[in-house]
Write a structure and sequence with these properties.
Elements (H helix, E strand, L loop, with lengths): L4 H11 L3 E5 L3 H14 L2 E6 H7 L1 H15 L5 E8 L2 H10 L3 E4 L6 H17 L3 E5 L15 H4 L3 H11 L3 E4 L16 H10 L5 E3 L7 H9 L2 E6 L1 H15 L8 H24 L2
Parallel strand pairs: 1-2, 1-8, 2-3, 3-4, 4-5, 5-6, 6-7, 7-8
Helix pairs in contact: 2-4, 2-12, 3-4, 4-5, 5-6, 6-8, 8-9, 11-12
This protein binds glyceraldehyde-3-phosphate, 1,3-dihydroxyacetonephosphate (13P) and zinc ion (ZN).
Zinc ion binds next to loops.
């Protein structure tokens, strides 16, 4: 492995910039992300539990670690489980070689979120792995009613402090009006809420999920407000699939999958490079 997610996050915090955490589920996506990092600077490669299961978690773990090992050169790259939902998800991702996990108990009651997250922290820390938790919920495209009651889903700053203190988590995913996918976000992110979270938790890396549709103005404001990592999945999926659809649009007479997958990989690499540059302020 070339780097640890937590060091990458702390370096970004100290340097007043941010990094991207990019989702993968196959070889081409992983190579695209790692090659982008080699060109532009540090990042985190992450897979959800669904991503790990898609390719078999041991196979995915080795695939990602090998690509980092053989293609990243000196770039610092972390390997993270995104949106783990259960103890089994966490154990399986740690066995597969991640250096950092997310336990997403954000849909549970506050008390249960604390209880579950604390158990995960104990297990993960014993294994040298750091933990991100989520408080408040980041809505999902297609999984929510169209109207979101933002006040009820955004992160409560006082509870965020309590969650960090009672569980010992290393990083926190925050909700300030952000949403997964190209889902309607809050008209204006709740910057005051972010400021209050940062004031109460000056040492905790803050993670922004659902960042695919965040442009440079909001990214800059979020970094000023203390966010040091943006999660990107949808933009990667769109870059990959739109390339394939474009190439096959008029009927597919390609007989070599590598031709299509290679083009899609290149497109994802250029999207990820652009994101890394935007987050790092280059
Ligand atoms: O935030 C998580 C993803 O965008 C959803 O990922 O389809 O791999 O579970 P998944
Ligand atoms: P997007 O799908 O909106 O990029 O969000 C990704 C994410 O939050 C992964 O955890
Ligand atoms: Zn997410």
């Amino acid at each position: 492995m070339r780097g640890k997610s937590i060091e990458i996050l702390r370096d970004a915090m100290r340097g007043d910039y941010a990094v991207g955490a990019f989702n993968t589920s196959n070889m081409e996506l992983t190579q695209a992300i790692v090659r982008a990092a080699k060109q532009e600077g540090p990042c985190i490669v992450q897979a959800t539990t669904n991503g790990f299961k898609y390719g078999n978690s041991q196979v995915m773990g080795r695939l990602v670690k090998n690509i980092i090992e053989f293609e990243s050169e000196s770039a610092k790259i972390g390997f993270h489980l995104d949106h783990g939902k259960s103890f089994d998800d966490i154990v399986s991702a740690i066995d597969a070689g991640v250096d950092s996990v997310m336990i997403d108990a954000s849909l549970m009651s506050f008390e249960d979120n604390i209880k579950v997250t604390k158990q995960i922290v104990e297990y993960a820390h014993k294994n040298g792995v750091t933990v991100q938790a989520e408080l408040g919920a980041v809505p999902y495209l297609g999984r929510e009613d169209q109207e979101i009651d933002w006040d009820s889903v955004m992160t409560n700053p006082v509870q965020a402090k309590e969650l960090v203190e009672k569980t010992g988590i290393d990083a926190l995913a925050v909700g300030i009006g952000n949403a997964h996918g190209f889902f309607k976000e809050r008209d204006v992110p709740d910057w005051e809420r972010l400021e209050e979270i940062r004031r109460l938790l000056p040492e905790t890396p803050l993670i922004m999920h659902g960042a695919s549709d965040w442009g440079d103005v909001n990214v800059k404001k979020a970094i000023e407000g203390g966010v040091c990592c943006f999660n990107i999945d949808t933009d990667i999926r769109v870059a990959f699939l739109s390339t394939i659809c474009h190439e096959t649009g008029n009927g597919c007479n390609v007989t070599d999958p590598r031709k299509l997958l290679g083009l899609a990989r290149d497109k994802v690499q250029s999207v990820v490079q652009g994101k890394i540059r935007m987050f790092s302020g280059k």
